[in-house]
């Protein structure tokens, strides 16, 4: 056992109690496993020093190397997760020194066990024979001042709140991500997706009536399997299977005979969106499929085996979430385009398209509660996701429940409850070495900071964040972070000039139909609209000389890549093919990605033949590549790691560095910095558990 000279400590905003092996904040208390707490005590003894893995294995796991290797990784994961559950930022508490060990970033303060007040220790209290004991304690005044500042900052950046929080019940608590809950018609079983470290997502079934019953694994393949959906009789599951090359298949597995049947190919989904639903009458499966430059809902009819298109989105629109009505005659679906989303109702009886909810910036979950005919959906509200409830009777929306980073939702009609996944991920931005991936600079807050762009002339970082309560553009400078936009509209991912402090930003002003491009200068007034650009614009990038802006736009119903010349203030067409994002090379050609198609393509400046450069960029990472120093850099993912790849002019690839799997966020997570560094948008801790709340808790 590792001995500490005192029994109670304050670390940041949390209190560590050695008597009962707990970490607490306010009234929230988390009890740690014994070995995890021993590991924490070791970090306390060496506060602000590096505790090597070898030392941890020797002192906590008593020299058992194989057990200790797994134990250290599990212990730091448990500590980070606990800190997150206490609404604190784990990155402010613990630091991982790659391949070496770990650090506790706070100097612990000894507390009186009865009053929880800090004790100022005299030097003779600390034994002189141990060099690994606690460092000198700061004065009471300093502790109080730091605590006050911490409280004020936490209050300033705290997420929005709805009504009195509902009582929640934890349903799963496994290491990894438990997502996409689906409840059986009798309310007894929950199918869900579980993704563990270095393993692909697989589907499991949990018995909700027996906490001791073992999980049943449904997945039988080595591929990623998602979106489990019960048949109305509870005897089968439909699901999506994604192969290593990105091919999506729709399957149905009979749970009694274990027979598996391929229904269709070409299906699609994004992230943890539940892009599949089985009609209550058992006759139809509704699912998402990519068509050209949009995503539509298709249906499979079991009686005839017919497959037909059910929704008809416009170019650039995606129908990825759907839920059937109780009588199976209507389908609610979320139609999104960039940061715009609406919920519409389609009918099997006619061609009517009824829009019931518009003006949402993002919707990531949808469920039709059939008993009371209500729609529940998870939407973005002032920078945070909140479960909303739509009443067809009153045609009104009310807040239902908010928790930390809610994702997918499911309804249990039998128990009249709602299930949801709560993530412990925290997007933040890092500037890393291109050679070994070591962090040179990090932007972290209690909010979500994403899509960093490097301002080379001033060494500043532009990024999107919801620090202010809504998504806005910010810049990180030596003196801190400064907000650049202020409720002007919905903002998209910016691009920074490689030669000066200009930036370009897609933004949809309040009341506008489309996004426009805005040009700004870091440190000056708000950005101004660039006139003369047609269509609905997205995803800008600067040319290497900073005199041109490439962007994607929907001008005539189809997405294409265009270039705007800042000198002449004229735009010209570059390439079609549903081009989504492009960057220029030194020869004036363009590397670009296509909507709903994996890979990076090259469009030469001389009119030569286009070519596929690599198929290894996934569709979800469509903007995670850049050109620099006559080489192309891009993100490649595997089951065990996220990889940063350099591709030279002769198409030779070199692995620069790796990070843990799914630690880098999607879309435009990479950006060039200076010659030796790269900007990477990170997910942080990647863990999710499933919880439930009663639907009867809100009238």
Short overview:
The protein is mostly beta strands and 699 residues long. Helices cover 8% and strands 46% of the residues.
Give the CATH level 1 class of the largest domain.
Answer: Mainly Beta
Report the average pLDDT across residues: 86
CATH topology of the largest domain: Neuraminidase
Percentage of residues in DSSP E strands = over 45%
Classification by helices and strands: mainly beta
Number of helices: 4
Shape: globular
Describe this structure in words.
There is one protein chain. It is globular, with a radius of gyration of 26 Å. The chain has three domains: 149 residues, Winged helix-like DNA-binding domain superfamily/Winged helix DNA-binding domain (Arc Repressor Mutant, subunit A); 268 residues, 6 Propeller (Neuraminidase), CATH 2.120.10; 255 residues, 6 Propeller (Neuraminidase), CATH 2.120.10.30. The two termini are 52 Å apart. A hairpin with a 2-residue loop joins strand 3 and strand 4. By secondary structure, it is mainly beta.
How are the SSEs placed, and which strands pair?
Blueprint: E1 8-11, E2 14-17, E3 22-25, E4 28-31, H1 34-45, E5 50-52, H2 53-59, H3 65-85, E6 94-97, E7 101-104, E8 109-110, H4 140-156, E9 169-170, E10 177-183, E11 189-195, E12 202-207, E13 216-217, E14 224-230, E15 236-242, E16 248-254, E17 260-265, E18 276-278, E19 284-291, E20 294-301, E21 307-309, E22 318-324, E23 330-337, E24 340-347, E25 353-360, E26 363-369, E27 374-381, E28 384-391, E29 396-402, E30 406-412, E31 417-423, E32 428-433, E33 439-443, E34 449-455, E35 460-465, E36 472-477, E37 480-483, E38 489-491, E39 495-496, E40 502-509, E41 516-521, E42 528-529, E43 536-542, E44 548-554, E45 559-565, E46 570-575, E47 579-584, E48 590-594, E49 597-603, E50 611-614, E51 625-628, E52 631-637, E53 641-647, E54 653-660, E55 670-672, E56 677-682, E57 688-694
Antiparallel strand pairs: 1-2, 1-8, 2-3, 3-4, 5-7, 6-7, 9-57, 10-11, 11-12, 12-13, 14-15, 15-16, 16-17, 18-19, 19-20, 20-21, 22-23, 23-24, 24-25, 26-27, 27-28, 28-29, 30-31, 31-57, 32-33, 32-56, 34-35, 35-36, 36-37, 38-40, 39-40, 40-41, 41-42, 43-44, 44-45, 45-46, 47-48, 48-49, 49-50, 51-52, ...
